[in-house]
Amino acid sequence: MRWNELEFRHLEYAIAVNSHGQFLQAALALDIDQGFLSKQIQKLEANLGFQLFDRTTRPLRLTAAGQTFLSRAEQIIEQTKNAIKLAEETQDGKRGRLNVSINTSIANSKLPDIIRGFREQFPDVQLILHELASLCKKPPG
Amino acid sequence: MRWNELEFRHLEYAIAVNSHGQFLQAALALDIDQGFLSKQIQKLEANLGFQLFDRTTRPLRLTAAGQTFLSRAEQIIEQTKNAIKLAEETQDGKRGRLNVSINTSIANSKLPDIIRGFREQFPDVQLILHELASLCKKPPG
DNA sequence: TATGATTACGTGGATCGTAAGGATT
DNA sequence: AATCCTTACGATCCACGTAATCATA
Fold first, then answer.
1. Chain B from 49 to 78: CB within 8 A of any A CB
2. Could you list the residue range(s) of the whole structural domain that residue B106 is in?
């Protein structure tokens, strides 16, 4: 099996062929050429080292190995897209950790409302609060 | 983000760069050219839509988004390799379901040993046993 | 100044569409 | 006979190595 030639795109191609039961409709749905789709699935099968589809019947059916692989491939695609989404959110500051130093004099008045508003807008950012006064104290000894 | 240009190979490239802290050693470990690795990581970052590495310091460090993404990418690669392995085993008959029709006359003598031996050799094959006699009965009515 | 990342460039090979040829029902 | 999977062919684009250039420490 040629692992380094595996592409995410090919997994989606195979999923589309399976769900449509034929190459023609799958190619239309994917907005690519039918002959090209056929070759790409052949390439995927060659890379994996086993057949995904049984071509001797129509509509096409998955082989046993194809069933085992494709059901997991769908999860893998979902997880990958999710990983990208989480990383984008981290990039945009909607996720992660934020250290905030506060002045105790306002801590008991306005702070609760501020925090509540922040949490609503950025539920996945972990707020870490420090009292400003305590940071200025000299270490003991 | 250009999902359909994403390749598994590129995830491993990024993981190698991170674990080595530099492109040069990562390229040697991957047995590819250093300039080529640099371009492939740039391409991966362009496809993802965010930077993975901070180049302004050496050794290189992951960005926050890079950390979020790469830790998940490692799991995704592992799951994908596992899915292929399971499918290969299905292909080779080491996994799956096997229907067996048996003659009741030997059912109580040799069968338990046979089944035990089979289970030891193919622990992931699900055995489904049928009595031969019952299959020959005419349906009621 | 030494190490190492990026860019420039060339060639062999792959991608993808168009269209013809073979299977399956 | 109709559907549709596979193969042939050609143009464009990309992969990947070599080597020069730029940036970090």
1. 49-50, 63-69, 72-73, 75-76
2. 93-135
